[in-house]
Each structure stands twice: as C-alpha cells, then as structure tokens.
Amino acid sequence: MIEVRDLNIRFAHDAPLVVAGLSFKVATGSTFGLVGESGCGKSTVLRALAGLNTTYDGEILLDGTPLPPHRPKTFFKRVQMVFQDPYGSLHPRQTIQAQLLEPLRNQGIHKPLSVVGEALESVGLPRAAAFRFPHQLSGGQRQRVAIARALMLEPEVLLLDEPTSALDVSVQAEILNLLMDLRDARNLTFVLVSHDLAVIAHMCHDIAVMQGGRIVDSFDAAQLRAGTLNHPYTRELLTASEAYGEGPAPQVELA
Amino acid sequence: MMDTAKTATNPLIEAKNLRIAFGRGEAAVEVVHGISFTLGREKLGIVGESGAGKSTIGRAIMRLSPPGARVTADRLTFKDVDLLKASEKEMMRLRGRRIGLILQDPKYSLNPVVPVGEQIAETWRLHHPGRAGAREAAERTLSILEAVKIRDPRRVAKLYPHEISGGMGQRVMIAMMLIAGPDVLIADEPTSALDVTVRLEVLTLLDELIESRGLGLILISHDLNLVRRFCDRVVIMYAGRIMETLKASELDKAEHPYTRGLLGSLPSIHSEQRRLPVLTRDPAWLLGAGAAR
Question: What does this protein do, in the record's words (chain A) (predicted)?
Fold first, then answer.
C-alpha cells in the first residue's frame, strides 16, 4: 500500500539530515509501527508521508504510484492523519459537526447531513455530540472526534502520530480497541508512530526502530513479544521499558 | 512489614479526612473527599487518572493550593507541624527546606533566562540566609550537580535551561530540591515528559538519593507500572477518593475492581491480546469512604 524509498529530509539545505536513507513498505490492511525516542525523526517521517512536509528527497509510493511532494487533492481522500494532541487538533470555536463536514467541503463532496451522525456513531459517540464544541468533550471523546474526522472521506490509510499518549491508560485502551475495530471493519492500513513499545507491540504487525533519523532495527510483532531481539539499541529500549514498566518477558499474566 | 511499623510510629506526613473544595458556599465543589494516608521514610505512590485529585493533594501539603481552594482535614501534619494552622512564615521555612516539590516538565519549571547553576545556588542561599556566601553556594551547587550525576558540573552550571536536555533538566530540578536538604520529596509526574531510557536513569538516580539520604517520597503518577516497580506502597485514587492502599509488591493481588481495571487496560509488550479490557466505572465506588488501610 505504502512504500518509502531512500527518504532523506533536512530542514535547510545546509542543515544536517534529520531523516537519512529511510526505506520501508506497508502492506494493505496491516499496521506498521515506527518507534523511537524524542527527536529521532519518527514524526518527521509521518509528516512527509502525509504531505505536510514537501521538502524531502527520495520516493514515497501509494499503491505503487510515486507521489509528487505537493500532494494533489485526491491524495487526501485516500490518506488521512490523526494527531497526538486532541486538544490542539480540533478547532476550539467550531462545532463538531462543522469540523466533520470540513473534509467533505474541501473535496467538494455533497452528502446529506446524516453522515455526521453516522460518523460519530462509528467511533462510539452519540449523535448529539455533533452540536458540541471541543471544550465540552473529554480528551478521549476529542480523540474519537479526530478519528471520525479522519474517516469522513473513507480513506484507505490512516497515519497515527502518538494517538494515545495524551490520554489516561483506561481511555487509551478504548481508543486502541476502536482503532483495531475500524482497521478490521474497513480494511484500513495504519502507520503508527509512538514512543511506547507496549502500544506498538499491541497494535502493529511490523515494527521499525528509529534512532538519529535512521531505521536501526526492524522486526515483526512476534519477535518483539518473544523478546528475541539482538540489536543493542532495541535491547536498550526494551530494558528501559521493562525496568519501570511491565517487567521482562516471562511474567505473571495480568487479569 | 518493618516499613509499615515505622510509618505507624513516626510518620513524616499524616493526613486524616483531608477534603479539598473549590468555590464558595452553595457553589463549592469538593474534589478530594476525605482521604487519609501516612508517609514514613518510604516511597509512597499516588496513582489515578487525570482529574482524580492527586496533584491537588500534593499542592495542599505544600499549601500551594490556588486561591479559592478550601482545604480542611481532621489532621494534616508534617512531623509535628500542623500544616493547616502554620503561619505563612512557617510555611516559607518548610517549603523547599523540609519538603521539596519536583514538577513534571523542567522546560516550564526552570527560569528560562537564568543559568541553571545560579538557580540552584539561589535555592541554597534562600534557605541559609545567615551564611549565604556566594562562594559557598557555588561550591554546594557543583557538588549537588555531581551528586545527581552530571558529568561536567562546571560547564553545565553555566548553561541556560534551553541548552540542556529534558533528562538533564529533570536532574537539575532534583538537585535544586535536594540542596536544601529536605526530609520529604513530592514528585509530581517527574518522568512523564521523558523518554524511556532517560526515565530509567532519572528514576535510578532518585532511588539512590532517597535511599542514601533517608527521605520520604510521594510519587504522583498516572503510570501504574512505574509506581508498582518504584514505590513501597501505592495509594489508588479515583474521583477524589482512595479506592485502596496496598504494598506495591502486592498490586497483582489487588482486589478493587478499579485497580484491576487499570491494570488490565495496559497493553503489553509480551502477550498478545486481541482487545484490551475496558474499564467499566461503577457508581458505587464513589460511595465508599476514602479510608486508607
């Protein structure tokens, strides 16, 4: 579905590379995870995929077709993004309904107003939420709205930038479940960026570890679960996650 | 077991039926509903979701609640000081000097236009007005920076907050709190702005310092796993009430459905789950009294 070939990104022509020689493929209906620490370039890659950053070298292909850096309007019908902060990504002075209709308006699509209610129900919100403003919703509800908005154009690909890191664990569980259900129901392809190995392990089929703008290690979810990874940086991440996290692999199952 | 005995006989902080409300008269909204706990020379974790009231408690102990907050309790003490009755002057001597507060994000908690060394020295001079020699303050700053494992203290002391990394910034904050030699540290989400590898370094350091100086720590966090591994005892809070208090090592045996729900909703690196169990909130949880065991 998505292929990235030799992606290089720098923010000024004489600046150092922030993303260097990145290549990966994402199969249709699967979830690809990019994991790494702050500043490793994972969100930069996602922004380049989304067409928010147009100054990159290398090729990004959607369904085998190379994309121009300035994406055509039709691209956004197929690829949408959900951002980290549901407080910042919704317009504070527009109703939820207005915000959900905006992608349709941008694309010049006319649909009955009832699509708003349907979209809200598909993410587990009541129809009445359409007439609310973002400040009247909780963080988890806002992230549901952001997901509903991303789904308005019925895209094939969702780019997820730390979609749950601003949420409580109990709410995170609800949002992760919702994303998995939507993925299965609509055969969506996800690219998920996160610093949280547990979230990545839960959601992703294939995983790449980034450090300093490069992919230093890649593996599938089963390898991560089994803990059979050998790259020193991956091991370091894993050890650090386990030290004050859930603990190493052979552990007591939590109910 | 020994810890619990020590706590009972000689608590550093004791709260009994602590209530915190915002607003006045009829419109007052109570956000902390009569909670009780004690802190000895131990690591006590307070865990809960956003809005559970955990930070509000931390601030109430320091008497840094925002104007409009009304704090009442049958008992709220630090050693033999009554935190509800102490004068503002007494509180000034207590804050920093006896009880230190470490906040979440060093980016916002440090003064951006003052070098970090000067900020640490300022703390020392504030708390030792009698012998506030600039040279002694500078020397103490360097040695405390060394204690928090900053490799080149002389160089780092001259840097501004924007020139240091998040992990270093958090170490500077810890240094700043420790230089006054407090008995109790209240750490409010000290590592949630940090990467996992940096988090590990900062927590290991904090653990060593608490151990070697015999401090009491209240760690406020939303991260159940972190608290379980780091702390001796854990207080689980929900909507301004204590659901249960237990030993961190016995968290797996927690009985309260809220605690079990929180534990269950964590995704795992090692085990595959199709769906994460979702917490169902029982209104009955709000009826139970907030008593600590």
Answer: Part of the ABC transporter complex GsiABCD involved in glutathione import. Responsible for energy coupling to the transport system.
